[in-house]
Protein backbone atom coordinates (compact mmCIF):
# COMPACT_ATOMS: atom_id res chain seq x y z
CA UNK A 1 0.00 0.00 0.00
CA UNK A 2 2.75 2.47 0.95
CA UNK A 3 5.40 3.49 -1.58
CA UNK A 4 8.28 3.92 0.82
CA UNK A 5 10.88 6.64 0.11
CA UNK A 6 14.41 5.92 -1.13
CA UNK A 7 13.55 2.24 -1.42
CA UNK A 8 14.27 -0.22 -4.24
CA UNK A 9 10.85 -1.72 -4.84
CA UNK A 10 11.95 -5.32 -5.47
CA UNK A 11 14.18 -7.33 -3.14
CA UNK A 12 14.10 -4.81 -0.29
CA UNK A 13 13.76 -5.73 3.37
CA UNK A 14 10.21 -5.38 4.72
CA UNK A 15 9.72 -2.13 6.65
CA UNK A 16 10.03 -2.28 10.41
CA UNK A 17 6.66 -1.48 12.02
CA UNK A 18 7.17 1.03 14.85
CA UNK A 19 4.24 1.62 17.19
CA UNK A 20 5.65 3.84 19.96
CA UNK A 21 8.66 5.89 20.99
CA UNK A 22 10.20 7.59 24.00
CA UNK A 23 13.53 9.36 24.42
CA UNK A 24 16.13 7.82 22.12
CA UNK A 25 14.09 4.62 21.79
CA UNK A 26 11.66 3.26 19.19
CA UNK A 27 9.46 0.20 19.87
CA UNK A 28 8.15 -2.21 17.27
CA UNK A 29 4.85 -4.11 17.23
CA UNK A 30 6.44 -6.97 19.20
CA UNK A 31 7.75 -4.67 21.91
CA UNK A 32 11.39 -4.82 20.81
CA UNK A 33 13.40 -1.70 21.67
CA UNK A 34 15.64 0.10 19.17
CA UNK A 35 18.01 3.02 19.70
CA UNK A 36 17.24 5.73 17.14
CA UNK A 37 20.84 6.63 16.33
CA UNK A 38 19.85 8.90 13.42
CA UNK A 39 17.11 10.89 15.21
CA UNK A 40 14.62 9.71 12.59
CA UNK A 41 16.28 11.63 9.77
CA UNK A 42 17.93 14.17 12.05
CA UNK A 43 14.85 15.74 13.61
CA UNK A 44 14.36 14.38 17.15
CA UNK A 45 16.90 16.58 18.88
CA UNK A 46 15.17 16.21 22.28
CA UNK A 47 14.35 12.53 21.86
CA UNK A 48 10.93 11.20 20.94
CA UNK A 49 7.64 12.26 22.54
CA UNK A 50 9.07 14.87 24.86
CA UNK A 51 6.11 15.57 27.20
CA UNK A 52 6.40 19.35 26.91
CA UNK A 53 6.23 19.13 23.12
CA UNK A 54 3.22 16.83 23.20
CA UNK A 55 1.45 19.06 25.74
CA UNK A 56 2.08 22.19 23.67
CA UNK A 57 0.43 20.66 20.60
CA UNK A 58 -2.53 19.36 22.59
CA UNK A 59 -3.05 22.74 24.22
CA UNK A 60 -2.94 24.54 20.88
CA UNK A 61 -5.51 22.19 19.39
CA UNK A 62 -7.90 23.07 22.19
CA UNK A 63 -8.04 26.67 20.95
CA UNK A 64 -7.16 26.94 17.24
CA UNK A 65 -6.42 24.21 14.73
CA UNK A 66 -5.87 26.18 11.53
CA UNK A 67 -6.32 29.51 9.83
CA UNK A 68 -4.78 30.63 6.56
CA UNK A 69 -1.87 33.05 6.85
CA UNK A 70 -2.81 35.11 3.77
CA UNK A 71 -4.65 38.09 5.22
CA UNK A 72 -4.76 36.58 8.71
CA UNK A 73 -2.38 35.94 11.58
CA UNK A 74 -2.48 34.22 14.96
CA UNK A 75 -0.55 34.30 18.26
CA UNK A 76 1.70 31.21 17.75
CA UNK A 77 2.97 32.48 14.38
CA UNK A 78 3.59 35.98 15.72
CA UNK A 79 5.39 34.67 18.80
CA UNK A 80 7.48 32.16 16.85
CA UNK A 81 8.57 34.75 14.30
CA UNK A 82 9.70 37.06 17.11
CA UNK A 83 11.49 34.24 18.93
CA UNK A 84 13.35 33.09 15.82
CA UNK A 85 14.47 36.60 14.89
CA UNK A 86 15.64 37.22 18.44
CA UNK A 87 17.37 33.80 18.56
CA UNK A 88 19.34 34.76 15.46
CA UNK A 89 20.36 38.09 17.07
CA UNK A 90 18.11 40.11 14.76
CA UNK A 91 20.43 39.50 11.80
CA UNK A 92 17.23 38.72 9.91
CA UNK A 93 14.02 40.74 9.87
CA UNK A 94 11.40 38.60 8.17
CA UNK A 95 10.22 35.01 8.57
CA UNK A 96 8.60 33.17 5.66
CA UNK A 97 6.77 30.04 6.83
CA UNK A 98 6.51 26.74 4.94
CA UNK A 99 6.30 23.08 5.83
CA UNK A 100 9.56 21.25 5.00
CA UNK A 101 13.19 21.84 4.16
CA UNK A 102 12.78 21.54 0.39
CA UNK A 103 10.11 24.23 0.29
CA UNK A 104 12.09 26.49 2.61
CA UNK A 105 14.96 26.17 0.14
CA UNK A 106 12.68 26.78 -2.87
CA UNK A 107 11.38 29.94 -1.19
CA UNK A 108 14.94 31.12 -0.63
CA UNK A 109 15.81 30.65 -4.30
CA UNK A 110 12.68 32.43 -5.50
CA UNK A 111 13.12 35.39 -3.15
CA UNK A 112 16.78 35.68 -4.19
CA UNK A 113 15.92 35.75 -7.90
CA UNK A 114 13.04 38.20 -7.46
CA UNK A 115 15.16 40.43 -5.23
CA UNK A 116 17.27 41.29 -8.26
CA UNK A 117 14.28 41.30 -10.63
CA UNK A 118 12.59 43.91 -8.46
CA UNK A 119 15.68 46.09 -8.96
CA UNK A 120 15.52 45.63 -12.73
CA UNK A 121 18.66 43.48 -12.77
CA UNK A 122 17.43 40.88 -15.24
CA UNK A 123 20.86 39.47 -16.08
CA UNK A 124 21.19 37.88 -12.64
CA UNK A 125 19.75 34.38 -13.07
CA UNK A 126 22.54 31.90 -12.26
CA UNK A 127 22.89 30.04 -8.97
CA UNK A 128 26.19 28.54 -7.81
CA UNK A 129 26.11 25.18 -6.08
CA UNK A 130 28.48 22.42 -4.97
CA UNK A 131 29.15 18.94 -6.31
CA UNK A 132 28.05 16.82 -3.33
CA UNK A 133 25.30 19.06 -2.02
CA UNK A 134 21.74 17.94 -1.33
CA UNK A 135 18.93 20.41 -0.66
CA UNK A 136 15.78 18.35 -1.12
CA UNK A 137 13.69 16.63 -3.75
CA UNK A 138 11.56 19.40 -5.26
CA UNK A 139 12.60 20.75 -8.66
CA UNK A 140 14.40 23.88 -7.48
CA UNK A 141 16.06 22.08 -4.59
CA UNK A 142 17.28 19.34 -6.92
CA UNK A 143 18.52 21.94 -9.40
CA UNK A 144 20.94 23.40 -6.84
CA UNK A 145 21.97 19.98 -5.56
CA UNK A 146 24.98 18.10 -6.80
CA UNK A 147 24.74 15.34 -9.39
CA UNK A 148 23.57 12.27 -7.48
CA UNK A 149 21.24 9.29 -7.43
CA UNK A 150 18.63 11.64 -5.94
CA UNK A 151 18.29 13.84 -9.02
CA UNK A 152 20.07 12.18 -11.94
CA UNK A 153 16.97 10.83 -13.66
CA UNK A 154 15.31 14.26 -13.48
CA UNK A 155 18.07 16.29 -15.12
CA UNK A 156 15.84 17.36 -18.02
CA UNK A 157 13.51 19.09 -15.55
CA UNK A 158 16.16 21.08 -13.72
CA UNK A 159 17.38 24.61 -14.33
CA UNK A 160 21.08 25.04 -15.02
CA UNK A 161 23.52 26.09 -12.34
CA UNK A 162 27.25 26.65 -12.09
CA UNK A 163 28.73 23.81 -10.09
CA UNK A 164 31.99 23.73 -8.09
CA UNK A 165 33.69 20.98 -6.06
CA UNK A 166 32.35 20.64 -2.53
CA UNK A 167 34.76 21.73 0.19
CA UNK A 168 35.75 18.65 2.20
CA UNK A 169 38.65 19.14 4.56
CA UNK A 170 39.02 15.39 5.23
CA UNK A 171 39.34 14.71 1.48
CA UNK A 172 40.39 18.01 -0.05
CA UNK A 173 39.30 18.51 -3.69
CA UNK A 174 42.47 20.52 -4.38
CA UNK A 175 44.76 18.16 -2.44
CA UNK A 176 45.72 20.53 0.36
CA UNK A 177 46.08 19.88 4.08
CA UNK A 178 43.41 21.40 6.36
CA UNK A 179 46.27 22.90 8.40
CA UNK A 180 48.11 24.54 5.52
CA UNK A 181 45.44 25.64 3.02
CA UNK A 182 44.01 29.12 2.63
CA UNK A 183 40.57 27.88 1.56
CA UNK A 184 42.08 27.14 -1.85
CA UNK A 185 39.00 25.10 -2.75
CA UNK A 186 37.23 28.42 -3.39
CA UNK A 187 39.82 29.85 -5.79
CA UNK A 188 38.00 28.59 -8.88
CA UNK A 189 34.69 29.95 -7.62
CA UNK A 190 36.19 33.36 -6.94
CA UNK A 191 37.74 33.46 -10.40
CA UNK A 192 34.35 32.69 -11.92
CA UNK A 193 32.65 35.46 -9.95
CA UNK A 194 35.29 37.97 -10.92
CA UNK A 195 34.31 37.40 -14.55
CA UNK A 196 30.57 36.63 -14.29
CA UNK A 197 29.20 38.24 -11.12
CA UNK A 198 26.68 40.30 -13.09
CA UNK A 199 24.93 37.00 -13.99
CA UNK A 200 25.00 35.33 -10.55
CA UNK A 201 22.13 35.52 -8.07
CA UNK A 202 23.64 33.62 -5.19
CA UNK A 203 25.73 30.80 -3.80
CA UNK A 204 23.76 27.97 -2.16
CA UNK A 205 25.56 25.98 0.51
CA UNK A 206 25.10 23.61 3.44
CA UNK A 207 27.37 25.25 6.03
CA UNK A 208 30.09 23.15 7.74
CA UNK A 209 28.47 19.79 6.85
CA UNK A 210 27.10 18.63 3.51
CA UNK A 211 24.68 16.04 4.86
CA UNK A 212 23.05 13.56 2.49
CA UNK A 213 25.86 14.00 -0.04
CA UNK A 214 28.20 12.09 2.28
CA UNK A 215 28.56 14.06 5.52
CA UNK A 216 31.40 16.18 4.12
CA UNK A 217 32.93 18.57 6.66
CA UNK A 218 34.63 21.87 5.95
CA UNK A 219 36.28 24.46 8.18
CA UNK A 220 34.47 27.60 9.37
CA UNK A 221 37.12 29.60 7.52
CA UNK A 222 35.66 28.29 4.24
CA UNK A 223 32.41 30.01 5.13
CA UNK A 224 34.25 33.15 6.17
CA UNK A 225 36.04 33.40 2.84
CA UNK A 226 32.87 32.59 0.92
CA UNK A 227 31.06 35.43 2.67
CA UNK A 228 33.89 37.81 1.79
CA UNK A 229 33.79 36.73 -1.86
CA UNK A 230 30.02 37.01 -2.22
CA UNK A 231 29.95 40.46 -0.63
CA UNK A 232 32.76 41.66 -2.90
CA UNK A 233 30.91 40.58 -6.04
CA UNK A 234 27.36 41.52 -4.98
CA UNK A 235 26.14 37.94 -4.82
CA UNK A 236 23.79 36.55 -2.16
CA UNK A 237 24.92 33.89 0.30
CA UNK A 238 22.07 31.42 0.78
CA UNK A 239 22.54 28.85 3.53
CA UNK A 240 20.66 25.60 3.92
CA UNK A 241 20.67 24.91 7.67
CA UNK A 242 17.85 22.39 7.53
CA UNK A 243 20.28 19.79 8.89
CA UNK A 244 22.86 21.91 10.70
CA UNK A 245 20.51 24.32 12.49
CA UNK A 246 19.53 24.22 16.17
CA UNK A 247 22.77 22.99 17.68
CA UNK A 248 23.78 20.24 15.29
CA UNK A 249 27.37 21.50 14.85
CA UNK A 250 27.86 22.70 18.43
CA UNK A 251 26.56 26.23 17.81
CA UNK A 252 22.95 27.32 17.51
CA UNK A 253 23.57 27.70 13.77
CA UNK A 254 26.56 26.63 11.72
CA UNK A 255 27.13 30.08 10.22
CA UNK A 256 27.73 31.46 13.72
CA UNK A 257 30.88 29.33 14.01
CA UNK A 258 32.32 31.36 11.14
CA UNK A 259 31.17 34.68 12.57
CA UNK A 260 29.35 35.57 9.36
CA UNK A 261 25.94 36.92 8.41
CA UNK A 262 24.25 35.14 5.48
CA UNK A 263 21.60 36.86 3.40
CA UNK A 264 19.03 34.14 3.93
CA UNK A 265 18.86 30.83 5.76
CA UNK A 266 16.47 27.87 5.44
CA UNK A 267 15.49 25.98 8.60
CA UNK A 268 13.39 22.86 9.30
CA UNK A 269 14.02 19.46 10.99
CA UNK A 270 15.13 20.51 14.51
CA UNK A 271 12.79 23.50 14.35
CA UNK A 272 9.95 21.39 15.78
CA UNK A 273 12.14 18.46 16.90
CA UNK A 274 10.19 16.23 14.52
CA UNK A 275 6.81 16.38 16.22
CA UNK A 276 5.12 18.28 13.36
CA UNK A 277 6.21 19.47 9.90
CA UNK A 278 7.26 23.12 9.76
CA UNK A 279 9.98 25.13 8.05
CA UNK A 280 11.03 28.76 7.79
CA UNK A 281 13.16 30.94 5.56
CA UNK A 282 14.79 33.86 7.38
CA UNK A 283 15.40 36.98 5.30
CA UNK A 284 17.61 40.00 5.87
CA UNK A 285 16.01 43.43 5.90
CA UNK A 286 18.01 44.64 2.89
CA UNK A 287 16.40 41.93 0.78
CA UNK A 288 12.88 42.46 2.11
CA UNK A 289 13.03 46.17 1.29
CA UNK A 290 12.99 45.35 -2.42
CA UNK A 291 9.55 43.78 -1.93
CA UNK A 292 8.22 46.63 0.19
CA UNK A 293 6.17 48.21 -2.57
CA UNK A 294 2.58 48.91 -3.64
CA UNK A 295 3.38 47.57 -7.11
CA UNK A 296 1.60 44.22 -7.56
CA UNK A 297 4.44 42.65 -9.51
CA UNK A 298 6.92 43.33 -6.73
CA UNK A 299 4.96 41.17 -4.28
CA UNK A 300 6.17 37.64 -3.52
CA UNK A 301 3.52 35.24 -4.81
CA UNK A 302 4.26 32.05 -2.94
CA UNK A 303 2.37 30.22 -0.22
CA UNK A 304 1.13 26.88 1.09
CA UNK A 305 -2.20 25.92 2.63
CA UNK A 306 -0.54 24.95 5.91
CA UNK A 307 1.90 27.87 5.96
CA UNK A 308 2.50 28.90 9.56
CA UNK A 309 -0.31 26.69 10.87
CA UNK A 310 -0.95 27.07 14.62
CA UNK A 311 -0.08 23.57 15.93
CA UNK A 312 3.20 23.59 13.97
CA UNK A 313 4.15 26.99 15.34
CA UNK A 314 3.21 25.89 18.86
CA UNK A 315 5.45 22.83 18.57
CA UNK A 316 8.37 24.97 17.34
CA UNK A 317 7.90 27.40 20.22
CA UNK A 318 7.92 24.52 22.69
CA UNK A 319 10.99 22.96 21.06
CA UNK A 320 12.93 26.23 21.19
CA UNK A 321 12.00 26.68 24.86
CA UNK A 322 13.17 23.14 25.68
CA UNK A 323 16.37 23.73 23.69
CA UNK A 324 17.20 26.71 25.90
CA UNK A 325 15.91 25.47 29.27
CA UNK A 326 17.47 22.00 29.03
CA UNK A 327 20.72 23.43 27.59
CA UNK A 328 20.97 21.32 24.49
CA UNK A 329 24.27 22.93 23.48
CA UNK A 330 25.83 21.47 26.63
CA UNK A 331 24.37 18.10 25.62
CA UNK A 332 25.95 18.46 22.18
CA UNK A 333 29.35 19.21 23.70
CA UNK A 334 29.15 16.03 25.80
CA UNK A 335 27.90 14.05 22.83
CA UNK A 336 30.76 15.33 20.68
CA UNK A 337 33.24 13.98 23.22
CA UNK A 338 31.51 10.58 23.32
CA UNK A 339 31.42 10.39 19.52
CA UNK A 340 35.11 11.22 19.25
CA UNK A 341 35.91 8.48 21.75
CA UNK A 342 33.73 5.92 19.96
CA UNK A 343 35.07 6.59 16.48
CA UNK A 344 38.65 6.72 17.71
CA UNK A 345 38.31 3.21 19.13
CA UNK A 346 36.76 1.88 15.93
CA UNK A 347 39.49 3.45 13.81
CA UNK A 348 42.12 1.74 15.96
CA UNK A 349 40.31 -1.61 15.80
CA UNK A 350 39.58 -1.58 12.05
CA UNK A 351 42.35 0.44 10.35
CA UNK A 352 41.98 -1.67 7.19
CA UNK A 353 38.22 -1.17 6.94
CA UNK A 354 37.45 2.39 7.95
CA UNK A 355 38.88 5.79 7.05
CA UNK A 356 38.20 9.50 7.33
CA UNK A 357 36.53 9.30 10.72
CA UNK A 358 35.36 12.75 11.77
CA UNK A 359 33.18 14.37 14.40
CA UNK A 360 31.54 17.77 14.65
CA UNK A 361 28.98 18.53 17.33
CA UNK A 362 26.36 15.78 17.31
CA UNK A 363 27.56 14.22 14.04
CA UNK A 364 30.03 11.34 13.99
CA UNK A 365 31.13 9.77 10.70
CA UNK A 366 33.33 6.99 9.34
CA UNK A 367 33.84 5.82 5.75
CA UNK A 368 34.28 2.23 4.65
CA UNK A 369 37.15 1.30 2.38
CA UNK A 370 35.31 -0.06 -0.65
CA UNK A 371 38.01 -1.78 -2.67
CA UNK A 372 36.73 -2.41 -6.20
CA UNK A 373 33.17 -1.42 -5.32
CA UNK A 374 32.28 2.15 -6.26
CA UNK A 375 31.68 4.29 -3.16
CA UNK A 376 28.41 6.15 -2.94
CA UNK A 377 24.79 6.02 -1.80
CA UNK A 378 23.98 2.69 -3.47
CA UNK A 379 26.93 0.78 -2.00
CA UNK A 380 25.56 -2.78 -1.55
CA UNK A 381 26.89 -3.27 1.98
CA UNK A 382 24.69 -0.45 3.35
CA UNK A 383 21.67 -2.74 3.36
CA UNK A 384 23.51 -5.56 5.13
CA UNK A 385 24.94 -3.10 7.64
CA UNK A 386 21.46 -1.73 8.43
CA UNK A 387 20.21 -5.28 8.97
CA UNK A 388 23.04 -6.21 11.35
CA UNK A 389 22.52 -3.07 13.43
CA UNK A 390 18.77 -3.51 13.48
CA UNK A 391 19.16 -7.03 14.81
CA UNK A 392 21.23 -5.55 17.62
CA UNK A 393 18.52 -3.02 18.43
CA UNK A 394 20.13 -0.01 16.73
CA UNK A 395 18.70 2.06 13.87
CA UNK A 396 21.37 3.33 11.47
CA UNK A 397 21.04 4.20 7.79
CA UNK A 398 24.45 4.59 6.07
CA UNK A 399 24.82 6.85 3.07
CA UNK A 400 26.31 4.06 0.99
CA UNK A 401 29.79 3.50 2.39
CA UNK A 402 29.46 6.46 4.79
CA UNK A 403 28.36 5.40 8.27
CA UNK A 404 27.07 8.25 10.38
CA UNK A 405 25.64 8.64 13.88
CA UNK A 406 23.31 11.60 14.58
CA UNK A 407 21.37 10.67 17.73
CA UNK A 408 19.14 12.84 19.90
CA UNK A 409 21.36 15.35 21.67
CA UNK A 410 20.43 13.98 25.11
CA UNK A 411 21.07 10.30 24.34
CA UNK A 412 22.54 8.40 27.29
CA UNK A 413 26.15 7.24 27.28
CA UNK A 414 25.02 3.63 27.72
CA UNK A 415 22.82 3.86 24.63
CA UNK A 416 25.65 5.40 22.62
CA UNK A 417 27.94 2.56 23.72
CA UNK A 418 25.38 0.11 22.29
CA UNK A 419 25.36 2.05 19.04
CA UNK A 420 29.12 1.73 18.67
CA UNK A 421 28.97 -1.95 19.57
CA UNK A 422 26.49 -2.47 16.75
CA UNK A 423 28.79 -0.61 14.36
CA UNK A 424 31.66 -2.78 15.58
CA UNK A 425 29.73 -5.94 14.72
CA UNK A 426 28.82 -4.52 11.33
CA UNK A 427 32.46 -3.74 10.61
CA UNK A 428 33.49 -7.23 11.71
CA UNK A 429 31.13 -8.69 9.10
CA UNK A 430 32.29 -6.33 6.34
CA UNK A 431 34.57 -7.80 3.66
CA UNK A 432 36.37 -5.51 1.22
CA UNK A 433 36.18 -6.73 -2.35
CA UNK A 434 39.71 -6.73 -3.75
Automatic annotation (TrEMBL):
Catalysed reactions listed for this entry: (8S)-8-amino-7-oxononanoate + S-adenosyl-L-methionine = S-adenosyl-4-methylsulfanyl-2-oxobutanoate + (7R,8S)-7,8-diammoniononanoate
Gene Ontology terms: cellular component: cytoplasm
Cross-referenced Gene3D superfamilies: Aspartate Aminotransferase, domain 1, Type I PLP-dependent aspartate aminotransferase-like (Major domain)
Residues where substrate binds: 41, 134, 269, 303, 397
Subcellular localization, as worded in the UniProt entry: Cytoplasm
Cofactor: pyridoxal 5'-phosphate
Predominant location category: cytoplasm
One GO MF term: pyridoxal phosphate binding
Keyword line: Aminotransferase, Biotin biosynthesis, Cytoplasm, Pyridoxal phosphate, S-adenosyl-L-methionine, Transferase
Entry's EC annotation: 2.6.1.62
Biological processes annotated in GO: biotin biosynthetic process
Annotated metabolic or biological route of this protein: Cofactor biosynthesis; biotin biosynthesis; 7,8-diaminononanoate from 8-amino-7-oxononanoate (SAM route): step 1/1
Keyword hit for Transferase: yes
Record: residues binding pyridoxal 5'-phosphate: 101-102, 240, 304-305
Annotated site residue numbers, Participates in the substrate recognition with KAPA and in a stacking interaction with the adenine ring of SAM: 6
Residues recorded with modification N6-(pyridoxal phosphate)lysine: 269
Keyword flag Cytoplasm: yes
Task of the protein: Catalyzes the transfer of the alpha-amino group from S-adenosyl-L-methionine (SAM) to 7-keto-8-aminopelargonic acid (KAPA) to form 7,8-diaminopelargonic acid (DAPA). It is the only aminotransferase known to utilize SAM as an amino donor.
Family: Belongs to the class-III pyridoxal-phosphate-dependent aminotransferase family. BioA subfamily.
Record note on quaternary structure: Homodimer.
Stated name of the protein: Adenosylmethionine-8-amino-7-oxononanoate aminotransferase
Gene: bioA
Amino acid sequence: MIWHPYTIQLDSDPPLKIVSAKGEFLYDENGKEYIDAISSWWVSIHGHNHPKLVDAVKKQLDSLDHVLLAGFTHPPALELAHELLEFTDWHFRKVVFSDNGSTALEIMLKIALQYFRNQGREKKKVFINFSYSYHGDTIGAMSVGGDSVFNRVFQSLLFQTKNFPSPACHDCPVFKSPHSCAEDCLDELEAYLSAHSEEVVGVVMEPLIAGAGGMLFHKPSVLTRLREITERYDVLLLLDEVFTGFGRTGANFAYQKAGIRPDMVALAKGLTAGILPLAVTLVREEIYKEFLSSEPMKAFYHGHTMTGYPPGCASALASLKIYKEENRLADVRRLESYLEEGWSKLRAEFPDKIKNTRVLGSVGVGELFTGKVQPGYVNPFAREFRRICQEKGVILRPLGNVIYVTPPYNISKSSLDKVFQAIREGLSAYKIQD
